[in-house]
Amino acid sequence: MTGTDPFQVFDAHVHVGHWRTPDFAGRDSDLADVTRVLRSCGVTGALVMPTDSGDNDALLREVVRHRGTPGAAPALFFAAWVRPDDDSLTDFLARNLSHVSALKIHPSFNRLPITDPAYAPFLALAERRRLPVVVHCGRWREVAGWEKAVEVAERHPDIPIVLSHMGGDSPTLVLGAARAIRERALSNALLGTESIREYWLVAQALDLVGPERLVFGSDHNLNHPASFLAVIEALDLAPAERALILGGNARRLLGAAGKSVR
Questions:
Q1: pTM (two decimals)
Q2: Domain ranges for the chain
Q3: Quick one: which of 43, 1, 41, 36 has its CA closest to 16?
Q4: Architecture of the domain spanning 10-256
Q5: What is the C-alpha separation between 1 and 253, in angstroms, rounded?
Q6: Which of 28, 47, 149, 200 is the most exposed place for a label (fewest CB within 10 A)?
């Protein structure tokens, strides 16, 4: 895959490491495992992030080693996991900012909605550096509802905000998020397709927000990328639309942060 366009098929939501939550039954994979699976699916580039262990240091070391290996594929970009109560995070970001392509915020694990003032320094950093912020959205509406992410997108129009699971991994939540993005004309808010199994739901959201607002993701190492690539292929998209969703929109987001592949 040497010389392949890293954004031909880009997975914008990939976890590496061990999950501590009992919900995921000790699921664990290292970067070698993850890149092997991505390659097997034809994924040429990926945004990788820690699990709920939040071990930014360990994952970044692995990513830097991967980048330094001649011909290593897929091309990897690093998203730092943000826990406001992590006393080491500010120093980590200051030391490694040149390697950070995005921030990942999981309000449910943090038990803190993204609108909480504790996130303000990290949102300010994202604003200054044009870093995309990938926000988990789910069914715990008070903490992880898509409404919170949309509110932040409205407050910070210069931050690209990716609503994971297309706003919440259920038809009602997905369509609610898509309608809000359309009605409020939020050019900086996008929907990540990870974990969405219903091709018809992705199609309805696409009709609402257009292909420029969808970013392909799989949520590997919990899901297999092939399952969610199949959802996109089932839409029978025009080539230009498919190219945007599978890589073009990610290129634009990461390019805004001034990041290169190597």
A1: 0.95
A2: 10-256
A3: 36
A4: Alpha-Beta Barrel (3.20)
A5: 23
A6: 200
